Amino acid sequence: MTTHAGLPRHQFQQDANLTANDGPRREAVRKALGNYQTARNRTGATFTDWKSARNAAATIKHEALNHLDRYLEEFEQKFTARGGKVFWASDSKQARDYILKLAKEKGVRSIVKSKAMTGEEIHLNEALLEEGYGVVESDLGEYIQQLKGEPPYHFVFPCMHLRRDEISDLFHRELGTAQTNSPEELTMIARRVLRRAYVEADMGISGANFIVADTGMISITENEGNARLTVGLPKIHVALIGIEKMVPRLGDLALFLPMLATAGTGQHLTGYNSMYGGPRQPGETDGPEEFHVVFLDNHRTRLLADPEQRDALHCIRCGACLNVCPIFKNIGGHTYGTTYQGPIGSVITPHFRGLQDWKHLSGASSLCGACTETCPVGIDIHHHLLHNRRNAAAQKPASGEGLLWKAFVFLMKRPALYRLATKFAPLGGLLQPLLEHVPFNPLHNWTETREFPQAPLRSFRDQFRAHQAAKTSQAKGGAR
Amino acid sequence: MSLGTGDRTAILGRVKEALRIEAPLKHPAERSAGGEPTTAHFREWLPPVGGSLDERFELFARLSETLKSELHPCADMAEAAVILAGLAKEGNWKTVALHRGDLIDALAEVLPPELETMRLKPGYDKDQLEACDAGITECDLLVAQTGSVCVTSKSAGGRVLSVLPPHHIVIARRSQLVTDLTEAYASLAAKYRDGYPSMISFITGPSRTGDIERILVLGAHGPKRLTILLLP
Amino acid sequence: MRVTLFVPCFIDSLYPNVGMSMVHVLERLGHTVEFPEEQTCCGQPPFNSGYWEEARTVASKQLDVFHKAEVIISGSGSCGAMFKVFYPELFHGHAREAEAKALSAKTWEFSEFLVTKLGITDVGARFEGRATFHDGCHGLRELGTKLAPRELLRHVQGLELVEMTEAETCCGFGGTFAVKYPQISTAMAEVKCNSICETKADYVISNDSSCLMQIGGWLDRNVGSVKCLHLAEVLASR
Question: Which residues of C fall within a CB distance of 8 Å from A369?
Answer without folding.
Answer: 137-138, 140-142
